[in-house]
Specification:
Layout lengths: L6 H25 L11 H20 L1 H32 L1
Length: 96
Amino acid sequence: MSSHNFATLRYTALRIGLFVASFAVVWVLAYLHIIPLAVGASNTVWMLLLAIVISGPLSFVLLRKQRDAMSEQIVAKVDRQRERLAAHAGQEDGLG
């Protein structure tokens, strides 16, 4: 099997990895007091939200090829399903 068959899995893994890396950077910056800590127990939530905000645009730019490959894979699967559905509908029409 080629790696193109696992485009969705690859994109998802890279997206999660980018989020984890963003969270690690945010955590280090907060630990070193370079960025302000949130009030009270909301520090983890603040860091998670900041990591999401950082990783979103980064993944849009850095993971363009993987996203395009995933899109091609999904479109191919949808097209195959439509062809199967049309073939089954044609068989049912022939029976009546």
